[in-house]
């Protein structure tokens, strides 16, 4: 999807169409605090982007054009569910990456359509016609290239990368456009004289692996259009973890407030596991402060559990080991449970018999 959150807000309120729309809390009403969740393409022309301090967006965008809207995740999840239902009308091999992004394997699809391009065009049109939202797609023979294609011609883009065109296409791309290549890796690649896909293609695989370890292996593959990962359909059988996290504006500065949110998360996780007859063996917490420093800690339970109380006890103890984050203010808290075992027995109510 193209600028998904901002597009949903614009569709809901067309008066925002010609404004520089930023999704996030207005720092002018929040002591200068806040972070850009996302923004529309007008705001991006001024240099605004996701994860930027919101106060910087205020400085970059003319006051007459700038509009802040707090994120409405309930609405975004609802619209995302509609889009995913359109995808499942085509194939059940849908791998969701986020609310606004997914991979589809349409090799064998429900519509009997042999052309992946025609399927993508039909899906794009349906999203536009029924929901009033723009989307972009990439069609290729693997996930990495499909992702590259979907980003290549936004907004409302359509990119097809054929096998005999892949190496040339990748050669033209800046290394910053390669998915998974973050700022630190970019800096290291630049130090090696690597600025484009073509540069990367000239480097021996063993050099990349020695320098970047596992990441180097994937860089070597991706440079030549190789990605062996299958599309993993969204299903409970494939779930490796269930979690809940949230960003807070304003930030949290007290332990009691953090623990209240953790308790709420653990209750939600218990409900999700019981729906699936799952028991988790590991609890993971994630904490991020106002400086975007992030810590993740995990604990193995003494035995598999689906109890919110077991999850909370572990999550609380794990948080106490990262409580120094309170000094700068905590802006994100997450709790995840993983290492599942499925209950082999079904609980029954004897009074039903």
From TrEMBL:
Q: What is the lineage of its organism?
A: Bacteria, Bacillati, Bacillota, Bacilli, Lactobacillales
Q: Which GO terms describe its cellular component?
A: cytosol
Q: How does it assemble?
A: Monomer.
Record site feature (Substrate discrimination), residues: 5
Q: EC annotation?
A: 2.7.7.7
Q: Where would you say this protein principally sits, based on its record?
A: cytoplasm
Which species does the entry assign this protein to? Lactobacillus gallinarum DSM 10532 = JCM 2011
The record's top EC class is transferase
| Residues annotated as the enzyme's active site | 101
Swiss-Prot/TrEMBL catalytic activity: DNA(n) + a 2'-deoxyribonucleoside 5'-triphosphate = DNA(n+1) + diphosphate
Note on how the cofactor is bound: Binds 2 magnesium ions per subunit.
Residue ranges constituting the UmuC domain according to the UniProt record? 1-182
**Coiled-coil regions listed in the entry:** none
Question: Function, please?
Answer: Poorly processive, error-prone DNA polymerase involved in untargeted mutagenesis. Copies undamaged DNA at stalled replication forks, which arise in vivo from mismatched or misaligned primer ends. These misaligned primers can be extended by PolIV. Exhibits no 3'-5' exonuclease (proofreading) activity. May be involved in translesional synthesis, in conjunction with the beta clamp from PolIII.
This one is known as DNA polymerase IV
What's a single GO MF annotation on this record? damaged DNA binding
Which GO BP terms, alphabetically?
A: DNA repair; DNA-templated DNA replication; error-prone translesion synthesis; SOS response
Instruction: List where in the cell it is found.
Output: Cytoplasm
Q: Which residues bind Mg(2+)?
A: 100
Q: Does the keyword DNA-binding apply?
A: yes
UniProt record similarity statement: Belongs to the DNA polymerase type-Y family.
**Keywords per UniProt:** Cytoplasm, DNA damage, DNA repair, DNA replication, DNA-binding, DNA-directed DNA polymerase, Magnesium, Metal-binding, Mutator protein, Nucleotidyltransferase, Transferase
Task: Name the cofactor(s).
Answer: Mg(2+)
Does the keyword Nucleotidyltransferase belong to this entry?
Answer: yes
CDD domains in the cross-refs? PolY_Pol_IV_kappa (cd03586)
């Amino acid at each position: 999807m193209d600028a998904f959150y901002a597009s949903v807000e614009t569709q809901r309120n067309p008066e925002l169409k010609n404004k520089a729309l930023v999704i996030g809390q207005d720092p002018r009403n929040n002591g200068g605090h806040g972070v850009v969740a996302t923004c529309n393409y007008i705001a991006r022309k001024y240099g605004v982007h996701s994860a930027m301090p919101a106060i910087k967006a205020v400085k970059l965008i003319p006051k007459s054009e700038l509009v802040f809207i707090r994120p409405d995740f309930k609405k975004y999840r609802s619209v995302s569910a509609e889009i995913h239902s359109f995808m499942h009308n085509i194939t059940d091999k849908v791998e969701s990456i986020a609310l606004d992004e997914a991979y589809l394997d349409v090799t064998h699809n429900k519509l009997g359509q042999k052309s992946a391009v025609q399927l993508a065009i039909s899906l794009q049109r349906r999203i536009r016609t029924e929901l009033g939202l723009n989307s972009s797609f990439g069609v290729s023979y693997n996930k990495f290239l499909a992702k590259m294609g979907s980003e290549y011609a936004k907004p409302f883009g359509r990119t097809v990368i054929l096998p005999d065109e892949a190496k040339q296409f990748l050669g033209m791309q800046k290394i910053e456009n390669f998915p998974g290549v973050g700022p630190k890796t970019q800096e290291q690649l630049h130090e090696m004289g690597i600025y484009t896909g073509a540069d990367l293609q000239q480097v021996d695989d063993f050099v990349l692996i020695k320098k970047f370890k596992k990441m180097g292996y994937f860089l070597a593959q991706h440079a030549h259009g190789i990605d062996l990962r299958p599309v993993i359909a969204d299903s409970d059988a494939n779930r490796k973890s269930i979690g809940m996290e949230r960003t807070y504006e304003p930030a949290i500065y007290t332990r009691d407030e953090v623990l209240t949110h953790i308790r709420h998360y653990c209750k939600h996780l218990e409900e999700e596991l019981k729906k699936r007859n799952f028991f988790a063996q590991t609890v993971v917490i994630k904490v991020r402060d106002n400086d975007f420093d992030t810590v993740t800690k995990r604990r193995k339970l003494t035995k598999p559990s689906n109890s919110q109380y077991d999850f909370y006890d572990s999550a609380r103890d794990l948080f106490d080991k990262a409580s120094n984050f309170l000094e700068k203010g905590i802006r994100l808290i997450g709790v995840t449970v993983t290492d599942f075992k499925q209950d082999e027995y079904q609980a029954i109510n004897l009074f039903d018999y």
